[in-house]
Amino acid sequence: MTKVLIDTSVWIAFFRGHPEAEHLNSLIDVNAIYINQLIRAELIPALTVRKEFEVIELLNTVHSLELRIDWEEIIYFQEENLKHGINHVGIPDLVILQNALQHKVPIFSFDKHFSLMTAHLPVKLYQLNAAPCRQQPDSLH
């Protein structure tokens, strides 16, 4: 089964009804969406303000990737970014990148930092034109 780590930026666009985020529906249909504790923590305050508690409950049912932070690697990412003229990449984005690398999954994001980092870090971005793999029926597992 395809796994895709869905970044906060995509969730926010999706909940606001932006057309570019509609592709998330096809990933939901094939049970390919994953988040981590950081993404969930980033989303909850924005949703609570809007009183979208049913969305919070939905997020609690989404597959979660275990989050293991290696601070030395985060520092390495920051140093590499600076060497390549990329500044102001937030720690949360670097933790999300690290999490995707640890689990060997692409990131679906609208955040420009991720695409900038593909030139010098092993960032794998989910391509919108990629068709999600259909999940095999349980009887075939």
What does the model show?
Helix 3 packs antiparallel against helix 4 (53-59) and helix 5 packs across helix 6 (91-103). This protein is 47% helix and 7% strand. The longest helix is centred in the first third of the chain and has 13 residues, at 37-49. The protein has a 4-stranded parallel sheet. The chain is an alpha/beta fold. It has 7 helices and 4 strands. It has a single domain (4-135), classed as 5'-nuclease (Rossmann fold, 3-Layer(aba) Sandwich). Residues 133-141 have low confidence and may be disordered. It has helices spanning 8-15, 24-29, 37-49, 53-59, 71-83, 91-103, 112-117, and strands at 4-6, 33-35, 63-64, 107-108.
Give a brief rundown of this model.
The protein is α/β, with parallel strands linked by helices. The protein is built from seven helices and four strands. It is 47% helix and 7% strand.
Structural class: alpha/beta
* Unreliably modeled segments: 133-141
How many domains, in number, for the residues? 1
Major β-sheet strand ordering:
3-2-1-4
Q: State the CATH topology.
A: Rossmann fold
What's the order of the H and E elements? EHHEHHEHHEH
The CATH architecture category equals: 3-Layer(aba) Sandwich
Shape, principal axes of CA atoms: globular
Instruction: Give helix % range.
Output: 40-55%
> Would you state the CATH class?
Alpha Beta
Name the CATH superfamily classification: 5'-nuclease
Mean pLDDT: 86
Count the strands?
Answer: 4
Oligomeric state: single chain
Count, helices: 7
Strand content: 5-15%
